[in-house]
Write the structure tokens for this entry.
Amino acid sequence: MDRFVGRIAAGAVLFAVGMVLHYIIDASELVQLAVFLPAYLIVGYDVLLKAARNIAHGQVFDENFLMMVATVGAFLLSALPGVTDVMFPEAVAVMLFFQVGEWFEKRAVGRTRQSISDLMDIQPEIAHVLRDGGLEDVDPEEVSVGDTIVVLPGEKVPLDGRVVDGTSTLDTRALTGESMPRDVSPGEDVVSGTVNLSAKITMEVTREYEDSTATKVLELVEESVSRKAPTEKFITKFARYYTPAVVGAALVIAVIPSLVLGDWVTWIYRALTFLVVSCPCALVISVPLSYFCGIGAASRLGILVKGSSFLESLSKTDTVVFDKTGTLTEGRFEVSRVHSVGMAEDELLETAAQAESVSNHPISRSIIEAQTSGFDASAVESAEEIPGKGVRAVVHGRTVHVGNHRLMNDIGAEYCDEEVAGTNVHVAVDGRYMGHIVVSDVVKSDAAEAVATLKAIGVRRTVMLSGDSARICTDVGGRLGIDDIRYELLPADKTEALERVMEDTPENRTVVYVGDGINDAPSLARADVGIAMGGLGSDAAIEAADVVIMDDAPSKIPTCIDLSKRVNRIVMQNIVFALAVKFGLLALTLFGYTNMWVAVFGDVGVSIIAILNAMRCMNISRYIVGTEKGSGRPAADA
């Protein structure tokens, strides 16, 4: 890039000297040529080489060919006998400003690539494996599941694993886009690609290198570059037919009026001006650049978009369909209420926790965790799980039953079911009913904000599909403001329900499905756009999805949709602006109202303006909804 800038600077200096010779000193044509020709070759030799190389490979009509014909034509036209107007300055100016436009493009692409490469710089080259009482540095690919590794302060976590020793703070920005560090301690899961900030931690590896989070993220980023949006494909096809058409039109302008009216120098000059004006650089560069910058901006927010086609589809979102567990809720249970009828509430909770200590069921663990003051596990004399019903235990010589209503029916205990959104866990001691504990899935803190913001940015309908009970789904959906709540669905039922939603959606509008589990994979693949919660989501869901949210935050869903709308608005601005200016100047050129200087603006000026507009997509994350601290409302337009 520095070399390229140096060439432009050297060419610009010679161009300035040539302009003084041409307009102020009025030097001879030979003297001017001695300055303008080196300036032209310094700035544009690579364009000439590309044009020649493409012609040799049968790819004649592109912007390099147009620049070569127009500028070389201007030099040759100036050298012909009888031509008094020297066109060297115009020829050099066209090539110089064309390269300035190329520099703007390279700079924009470079900045976006840097943001993506920062994301991709998440794979450490070594892992410290604990073997034979010492540390051995090996390639992360050589580490197996079950191995113990050590991550020192300042190092990247090389593989997914679980902390077995040590407490530290992790920087997760590269993966999630979140600036707030995360504290980890023994028993907690850690994903590869995060940075250990404060203290040494020892981890047990839970995933092979090729299955690790960092590796999968890199695969997704690499995949995103290859998928083009329909608008992008249209522009590519448009340029393929447009360029030969304008070359043909330039030939007609040069030849037919010259034969009919004479004055061939004037008409050839107009034809060359026509070629410069008609160059499709503004469209060919700015449209893919806008999408590329948009994908880069999303990646900085911890949102991985697998291609510009999905960025375009998201801008047309009409309906968002949510899975419930793990998407709108945390997928973890906690005690929300204790209702005692035969003993004190804290005693009821302690008795239930003692009995449940033999079980690894998520509901059992939530009851145990609710006992923040701890309990005497040694008081449990015997215990057994009763599949599908609960547990039976002997605690302090008393027989304790903890479980669902079926278990209560089995022992003949009269129970009461509370009509609440959650699971009633009943407790009986020596056959006598003592009360129940309500265990509920925790709704994500930003879920309500996400649903409200979706409606604020124009999403017409929100739907929730879940396999949970009507009572739980109605409560969660009602609290979040979901428009359409469907419950007690099997995985196959979810896909059928999604298809019915898609049938009810207006044509050319998008249905987005958001999920996280293996059972969501068919729906993620079936929807117009599938968004997977990638932090805790299953590999199958991430593989099937088109967009992955790395930190599982529902608030990133409206952020992603709003970003796509703004990127596509910038794309349309560039298309309308470029075509309007191009066709207007082409018409004026036919009637002789423009010259090569105006053509420079018509080509390079429009390209630079379009590129600068496209570059706004890189910083669009500063303005999109959900990124302004303390605000759930859409931010001002970018």
About this structure: The CA atoms of residues 571 and 637 lie 15 Å apart.
